[in-house]
Amino acid sequence: MSQTIAVLKGDGIGPEIMEATLRVLSALDCGLDYEFLDAGLTALDKHGQPMPDETIEAIRRHRIALKGPLMTPVGGGFTSLNVQLRREFDLYANVRPAISFPGTRSRYENIDLIMVRENTEGAYLSDGQSLTDDGETALSSVRVTRKGSERIARYAFELARQRGRQKVTAVHKANIIKTSSGLFLDVAREVAQEYTDIEFQEMIVDNACMQLVMNPHQFDVIVTTNLFGDILSDLCAGLIGGLGLAPGANIGTEAAIFEAVHGSAPDIAGK
Ligand SMILES: NC(=O)c1ccc[n+]([C@@H]2O[C@H](COP(=O)([O-])OP(=O)(O)OC[C@H]3O[C@@H](n4cnc5c(N)ncnc54)[C@H](O)[C@@H]3O)[C@@H](O)[C@H]2O)c1
User: Fold this and answer.
1) pLDDT, tens digit (0-9, with 9 covering 90-100), for 122-137
2) Does the CB atom of residue 69 touch ligand 1 within 6 A?
3) Same domain, 99 and 145
């Protein structure tokens, strides 16, 4: 039986990495058919909008998409299309494994960890961003919910169980950001009590950065909030040889979108 998936080639190096990915999938002969859809700068040129309705509808229909990186203008312009997709399909779990590939030049060998990043709330989204008229003060709000924290913590523990992993580390900044990061940590602790077969560890994010560089082998599954996960997962890619080796999955209950961790890499596009 074949399954059709939506394919969005993306911006910058997107079309190049997609071509390589489709060659791999074709060699695996896993019964996939593709519906190619426009998104990003190509879509803006062709349809006047970077995320056409027909692209959204096709993802809704197929429920699985393979997506190249999409460029987001820095400081202004349209809001992130990646965030739009994560919101549209409530893709709450961003799963980013960092696993060493044999024969690849990298700082470490035998890295085998999975970052589970909350994907729908928190400081990364910066809801309600504003700048005062005098340009002196910028504001944004951070919203973390019990529901969001609980489902991501549960996802991490379930993943750990399914994959035979031993430990889940919750990375937070609850010592300083006592409400939003504190709620995430409290809920992670509660969920951990239901998974007594898996070790639970807590770590403050600044220490986690140093520990990842000094002794990355101590980590197994990491669960964290959106912005910390965004930053730490690039760090983890650096442990295994770079962003070109780092896959990511955005998982929701109704759809899943698979992509590289990296962006459109304009500095190497076409090379
Ligand atoms: N999920 C996404 O679609 C996504 C993720 C991150 C950034 N972005 C967007 O991408 C654009 C560029 O961002 P950036 O330059 O900060 O980050 P980037 O991830 O595109 O690139 C960072 C560095 O990693 C290198 N790199 C990236 N992919 C590589 C690959 N496959 N092989 C080898 N090296 C690779 C690049 O050359 C660059 O030096 C921005 O508009 C940003 O918003 C999109």
Assistant:
1) 999 888 889 999 999 9
2) yes
3) yes
